[in-house]
Amino acid sequence: MSDIVFRGGRAEGKVSPPPSKSHTHRAIIMSALSEGRCEVSSPLISFDTRATMDAVRAMGAVVTEREGSVTVECESIHAPDRTIDVMNSGTTMRLMTGISSLFSEKVVLTGDSSIQKRPMGPLLDSLSAAGVECSSNGGKPPVEVRGPITGSELVIDGGVSSQFVSSLIMSSPLTGRPTDVRITGHLVSKPYIDITTSMMGKFGVEVTEEGNVFHAEPQHYMPTDYRVPADFSSSAFPLVAGGIAGRVTARGMDMSDPQGDRKIIDVLKEAGCDVEVSGDEVTCSNTGRLEGAEIDMGDIPDLFPVVAVLLSTAKGRSRLYGAPHLRFKESDRIALTENMLRTLGADIRGTEDGCVIEGVERLHGGRIEHNGDHRMMMAAAVASLVSDGPVSMENDACWNVSYPGFPEQMRSIGMDIEGL
Questions:
Q1: Against a cut of 0.90, is the pTM above it?
Q2: Which residues make up the binding site for 3-phosphoshikimate (predicted)?
C-alpha cells in the first residue's frame, strides 16, 4: 500500500467538519428501538456508523441511506438473526452488547483483529450479575450474550469506558421493570453519558440521575426525527491547524450541545490561540509560539493525540493527565501518540494517564505508524504544519472512520498533500 505524505503549509480558510459519530450511532439505535419510522438527518456516514446500521438491520430494522439522511423503520425489534460483525467499531460493539442482552436468544458479536483486543469484561460482568448469560475470549470479543436482564440493578465500573455505561442506560428502560444503573469508581468521559441521556429524552425516554445512579422506569422509545450536530472532536483537527499555522473557521458547530469535546475551545485558548465564536462558527488563529499547558483529558480522551500535537511546539512543559482509559481505545493511544510525536522530533514522555511534553521550536518530520487509528493519522497530518520535513504514513484511508473527506478539506485550507 502506498504512502500519503503531508508537507505542511499554512492553514487558512473555512471548513465544515463532519457530523458527530457518537450522535449518529445513538440515533440509529434509538430509531430502531422506537419500532416506528425515524429520519436521521445530517448523519455521519462512515465505516463505523455503517456497522451500526448493519447491526440494527440484523434486529429487524430497514435502514435506507439517502443524500443527507438515513431512514430507519422497524415494526418489531427482535434478536439479531445472525452474528453481528462490528468491523472496527468499538462503539457498535459496546452499545449493541447491552441491547442484545434484552433478548432470550443467544447473540454473538465480533469484529476485526483490533476489536478483538479491546476490553469488554466490565460490561459483561455487569450483565452477568443481572441474570444475562455471557461468554467471551478472556473478557474480549467475540462475545456471546443471552438475556433477558432479570435484575433491577446494573452495577458497572465507570473507569474503563463511558460506552459501557451508555450501553446499560440505553437498555434500562426496556427491561420491563424499574432499573438502576449504579456506577462505581470514577466515571470517565461523563459528557458522553450526557449525550446519551439527552438523546434518550428526545426519543421520549426519561432517565433520572442522582449521584452515581441513573434510574429508568419501564418505557418505550418513540419514533422521532433527529438532526445530528457537527462533531467537536473532528473540528479539533482543523482548529488546531489554525492555532499552530494560520486561521481556520469550523462551521456548523452547536455550542449548546452537551458534547464534551467542546472543551477544545478552552484548550486552544489556554495554549494561547485566539478563538472567536460567532453563531455556529468557531475560528482559531495563531498568535505566535504557543504556551505550555496542563490539561485534564479525563472527559475528552478523543482529543488526546491532536492536543499533544498542539502542545508539542509550545513553550515550556505541558502535561496531559487524567485519562488512563486511553490505553484501551482503538490502540493504546498514549503509547502510539508518544511514538508518533517522538518520531517527528517531539520531546514527549508517556505516563500512566497521559503524557509530559517539553516543547521544541519545530518538529523535523518523518514516517510514522498510525496502526489504522483514524485520530492518530489525522493528528500526525496536522503535525506536518510545524514540521521542517514531510510527515508520511500508510495510506489506508482510516480517516473515513470519523472524518470522510479529511485530506481534501485540509488541502482546501492550504495543506500540501501528496498521494491522494
A1: no
A2: 21-22, 26, 161-163, 189, 302, 329
